[in-house]
Amino acid sequence: MEAEAAVRDADVIVTATHSQEPVLRGEWLKHGAHVNAVGACLPSWRELDDPAMKGSILIVDSREAALQESGDVILSQAPISAEAGEVFAGTRHVPREATTVFKSLGLAVEDIAAARLVYDAVTAGAGTSA
Q: Please, which residues bridge with residue 37 across strands?
């Protein structure tokens, strides 16, 4: 019941587990919520149940990787709506009011982009210090 209470009214939910069974249920998600599912990275492991996966617009970092490595995607057979890069490039549109799931398996380019943002913030801040 603690997990349900924590996510029932949440706008953004992050799962980062090594769970082999779903820990997040679709019935707990409010309409318009966004889930970042970054754990359970084996074909037989799951963080999200079928209603969470199938009742949301599913975005992945890589279709190929998700269909080979993500138990959440493979076992639910949820349709992949887009790769994150397609959304960022504007070639795929996701309605703002939609319930969404981003299933990430972690691509090196994501780490590089995050590191660049941190580096730019630190170096910009260093230039303003006395």
A: 15, 103
